[in-house]
Amino acid sequence: MAVMTYREALNSALREEMRRDPRVFVIGEEVGLYDGAYKVTQGLLKEFGPKRVVDTPICESGFTGVGIGAAMVGLRPVVEMMTFNFSLVAIDQIVNTAAKLHYMSGGQFSVPLVIRGPGGPAAQLAAQHSQSVETYFYHVPGLKVVRPTTPMDAKGLLKSAIRDDNPVIFIESETLYNVKGEVPDDPEFLIPLGQAIVRREGTDVTVVAYMGMMYRALEAAEELAKDGISVELVDPRTLRPMDTETIIASVRKTHRAVVVEAGAGFAGMGSEIAAFITEQAFDDLDAPVERVTGANAPMPYAKNLEKLKTPTKEKILAAIRRVCNANGS
Amino acid sequence: MAKTMTPQKASLGALDPGLARKLLTDMLLIRRFEEKAAEAYALGKVGGFLHLYIGEEAVAVGATSVLRPDDYVISAYREHGHCLAKGSDPKRVMAELFGRRDGLSHGKGGSMHLFDKSVNFLGGHAIVGAHLPVAAGVAFAIKYEERDQVIVCYFGDGAVAQGEFHESLNLAALWKLPVIYLCENNRYAMGTSTERALAQTQIWKFGQTYGIPSEKVDGMDVLAVRDVVARAVERARRDKTPSLIEADTYRFRGHSMRDPAGAVYRTKEEVEHEKERDPIVLFRERALAAGALAEADVRAIEKDVNDRMDEAVAFADASPEPPADWLFTDIYKEG
């Protein structure tokens, strides 16, 4: 095990996969000469040269399409979105072409493509640069969607994504790049896509969360432990395909569930998780499933409003207490 | 760089009988295929949108005739002709239109999403302009792996106003990618004429902006298309130079089967006038005049093509519907 930042874990995953497979290349804005807008691709140009670390002009649709075409005929591109907000410029390429080529061609062509970059709420970046865009992708059959919470997950999941034969949307976070954690040294360390993890075991309530919300939920869980409430934390890690079994197994044990998500709640990931818990484990529930979500508003710039938009630890605490019938006790 | 203002005409010279036979056969095959498809649509055997290539056959046949079998072709949704010219089995193309299990894409793609990996035909893309960057990506991979193939990317005049046309030309020129962008200018994006859509209606000139060889060609003259595309292919194969070619062509039928013959966006007189440029009639007359083909040859070719199209329809009709469990296959590649 080595201790490294989330950023370093991603960098090491890219480096190892590029060393392992000459078909893997990185393409995007500022990935080479500039060493990456967030330095995730730092040093790759130096090691692999401009053929495999390809700087592009600003044309998300264009270079995403280039990635798709290259993948169709045998390469394994890793497309960087400087931030995932810009992926919306390329959403037609991703949703209409990358996701559907395998199906529309009756299985003749596949698109082994990773599209990665930071997304989710950040610090005072306002409406266009601070939002949870995974919503637009996890609805689409043909795409896989990953949101890695820890440095270990970042590395193990990115390596699996690069080796996957399907288009994978891999959304990191600006707010997590400097988080440190243990990461295995083994270059064959992989975390399979579609596998959730129980980050903290508990008996009274299941809290499902990922990325920054998982760190907030952890704080809430520690605080509630002092009040005698035992919280189990489940991190789906991959949003599509989702490991519903692990979540359902946890709910069957705790009989209560709270889902936390940073994005606006309407038709969000919380809605989906609450729906399948209700469908599959209704009789096990002692309380309705609660959702703690971002407010149904664009992200404001002002610090005080930004705080109101995003789920806070206090909101998570209140929701857990409600489902545990522990209000004011 | 060619600075042609008027469409290129074919160079004169002896016409090889073998070549004449091939070009006429391939164009006729597409024409008859499309006529059969239209009949099947009227009978309710083909559903959805059906965009016929009738009138434009010389472009696909001329261009493909100078490609190697391992070269790639990618197209939009009026692609039956491109797919057939590349060598796909008409039986399986027809079965795809019928939505049957023996179709190229097992009935999951339909008329707009033909794919055939066995002949390097890469689709079949129905969002206007979206396959142009994909073509650049295929060319990127060819260069990355130091292969000497090329890719021909067909698209219509409607794609020229899309951002992806310009992004793709920029990237192909910037990175020197072996892609030939071949615009089939049939003058109408659905019902919108190029005059109503483009500030620059001389589409080939956009290539000059990006500094790549650009030419305009008479798209009704199969030999002229051959010449122009052959030059572009040679440039792409030799030193990875991309090209933009504008083929001046015309569709004799509506935008799709839902576009009535009496459409308001063009006159009957215009359509009838353009039919005088029918690429198949023009080439047949030329081949006969040059002595490359005899009347008997033409009749034999017509009979052969008609028989093969009857077979294609019978094959498609006999092919079963895809089984129910195929709804969920090919969503993800396993393994």
Describe the structure.
The complex is a heterodimer of chains A (329) and B (335). The longest helix of chain A has 15 residues, at 6-20. Chain A is 37% helix and 19% strand. In chain A, helix 1 packs parallel to helix 8, helix 3 packs parallel to helix 4 and helix 10 crosses helix 11 (269-281). Chain A has 2 domains: 2-183, Thiamin diphosphate (ThDP)-binding fold, Pyr/PP domains (Rossmann fold), CATH 3.40.50; 197-323, Rossmann fold. Chain A has helices at 6-20, 44-48, 60-72, 91-98, 101-104, 126-129, 134-138, 151-163, 212-225, 244-254, 269-281, 303-309, 313-323, and strands spanning 2-5, 24-28, 53-55, 76-80, 114-118, 144-146, 168-172, 180-183, 197-200, 205-208, 231-235, 238-240, 257-264, 290-294. Chain A is an alpha/beta fold. Chain A has 13 helices and 14 strands. Chain A has a 7-stranded mixed beta sheet with strand order 3-2-4-5-7-6-12, with helices on both faces. Chain B is an alpha/beta fold and 335 residues long. Chain B has a single domain (17-317), classed as Thiamin diphosphate (ThDP)-binding fold, Pyr/PP domains (Rossmann fold, 3-Layer(aba) Sandwich). In chain B, the strands form 2 sheets. In chain B, strands 2-1-3-4-8-7 form a 6-stranded parallel beta sheet. In chain B, strands 5-6 form a two-stranded antiparallel sheet. Chain B is globular, with a radius of gyration of 19 Å. The mean pLDDT of chain B is 95. Chain A binds chain B through residues 25, 51, 56-57, 59, 61-75, 77, 92-93, 96-97, 101-110, 112, 141-142, 144, 165-166, and chain B through 72, 103-109, 113, 115-117, 122-125, 127, 130-142, 144-145, 163-164, 167-168, 170-171, 174, 329-335.
